[in-house]
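In this supplementary section we document a worked example of the pipeline. Step one takes a protein sequence of length 181 as its only input; no multiple sequence alignment statistics are reported here. Step two produces a three-dimensional model, which step three serialises into structure tokens for compact storage. The input and output of this example are shown verbatim.
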Amino acid sequence: MKATVLAHRYAKALFELAVEKNNLDTIAKEVAIFEQVLQQNTKLKYYFHSPEAGKAGKRALIEKNFQDRFSALFIHFVFILLDKGRQNIFSEIAAEFKRISDKHNNKVRASTITAVPLPQNQLELLKKNLGEQYKATFEIENYVDPDILGGMVLNIEGKVIDASLRNQLEKMKAAMFASRN
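The serialised model returned by step three reads:
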């Protein structure tokens, strides 16, 4: 079975349990923190994913380092992943959990590319306007790419709106060459 299908199943199961236990915010934070720890600590990540390391050793490591920091529900979930040998898809599970949780909370993630960093007040105005248009709460990351010359490229969950100066110039250039022929 594909990792993405499995990740969705595990993420959905954890999400549903978290909602049922009225513990969604806590579990969402724990999933994000654990994923961040795995990404930052390469030795821990290697050990956690290593087939040579036994399940008992991995369980002991989780108990020793995380038992008092995370909820019993999350620890139990990690133990299930270990028992089923699915710990190697935790990053995919974390991403899918975040997507499901965001959808539940009516939160949309977007990114902008601008030639210079957007001032905070413009970023907040963009969030407000998009939020009103989509009837959702927006989180926007701003990336800088001087090659777009000006304007903005907006990506909302895979839908790209290219209002960059570079794109407009390319369209004008194409139109000029098309009119010559």
